[in-house]
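Dear support,

Our group has been running a series of protein-ligand predictions, and this particular one with tetrahydrodeoxyuridine is the one our PI (initials K.S.) wants archived with full inputs and outputs. We had some confusion internally about which version of the output was final, so please treat the block below as the authoritative record. The input we submitted was:
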Amino acid sequence: MKINLKKLVAAAAQARLGSVSPYSKFKVGAALLTQSGEIIGGANVESASYGLTCCAERVALFKALTDGRKKFVAVAVVARCEGGPMPCGACRQLLAEYAPKAAVFVADSADLKTVRKFTVKKLLPSAFVLVP
Ligand code: THU
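Confirmed final output from the archive:
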């Protein structure tokens, strides 16, 4: 399926507006594209107990998975930082498990036209998986 990158990155930028980040003030949005063309967005949610914070990528993934979506072809992540936000280790693990074939796009919210592309395999080689 052909990826409409502009639309996917715009969806991540839109999802970012839902960020609940009173502590870091660092708003992150993510948008997952399913094989059937659906887009599911998510944003980071922070806790006063900082370690409970959940990244935008995982919020989007958990929303999609618990809505029965299983096949992901791409994910876009947007935040206001140079070059776009690289997914953290925890998100890379979850992507390796549930979206291993997804293309990963990152962009700076101040420059949505400049998008960097990665594979999940490149971000997390030799990932730990139990279910093949
Ligand atoms: N964060 C994400 O949502 N995704 C990333 O890829 C990196 C970090 C969030 C977690 C926290 O709310 C804030 O950014 C600062 O670390």
